[in-house]
Amino acid sequence: MRRGTDDRPVYVRIQDHIRERIAAREFGPGDRLPSEAELSAQFGTTRATVARALRELAFARVITREIGRGTFVAPLAVKVPFEPTQIQSFEEAVGTQHGHISYRVLDVRRAPAPAAVATALRVPEGSEVFRLERLRIVAGVPLSVVVRWMTIGIGRRISADAISRHSIHHILQHEIGRAVVHTDGYMEADAADQRLAGLLQVKQGAPVLIRRYTLSDRDREPLIYGESWFREEFHIAYRMPMARSTRRGAGPSSP
Q: Are 183 and 224 contacting, i.e. CB atoms less than 8 angstroms apart?
């Protein structure tokens, strides 16, 4: 709580007020915010001052403004930094910037390994493996559906409590004792079918990003084959290290 005289400019106080209410989850992505007239009356200021505050928040992508409709909290945009020299779980990469990450377990069962799963886990096609499906929820928004396949030996050692609370990286390291050291995979785009659209709360046919990957330990022994479907609000921010030439006097290489 601020004490004494608040010497911040009024437009800054309006911005901080809106940010604080969003952070406290009084307003969520897509929610309508108070109008310019309401904010003007609340802060005892002019509409022009309120307009400035909202214009800057819109520029920062905190809110969106639609002519004739009003002002809304901007859709969730989760940026995950990609560092090619680091292995991080989704939860570690996102950190706390987007609020609490939780899970809803959709399915846990034994199933015959499809061809792609069998190849990744190095087991015979059709052999029995564990299949875990969860909905990952970020700041109250269902962001991704995640399916993880694993051998029976790993699956039977994972507790129900861990499945509902922790990332797969955490589970593998702390329950199985085999940390993830290598990740191999690829990404592609697709459209949400009816079931996926319902789980992610998007329209059927909406764009989704699919990530398929294998998690392995230090000895390159496969631990998990995974598939994740992300809403379009999921963004990847990446930074690639520049390779340096060992030749004396060599200049920068062409792209």
A: no
For the chain, the maximum distance between any two Cα atoms, rounded to a whole number of angstroms, is: 72
DSSP for residue 32: B
Residues linked to residue 222 through DSSP beta bridges, in sequence order: 216
**Residues 24, 149 share a domain:** no
Side-chain-side CA neighbours of residue 158 (13 Å): 28
Residue labelled with tokens 């990952």: 136
- Span 205-245, pLDDT tens digits: 989 989 999 999 999 999 999 999 988 776 655 555 555 54
Can you tell me whether residue 181 is helix, strand or coil?
coil
- Same-domain pairing of 115 and 100: yes
Write out the residue range of the structural domain in which residue 51 sits.
Answer: 10-73
CB atoms within 10 A of CB 103: 15
Per-residue pLDDT of 156-175, as tens digits, reads: 999 999 999 888 998 999 99
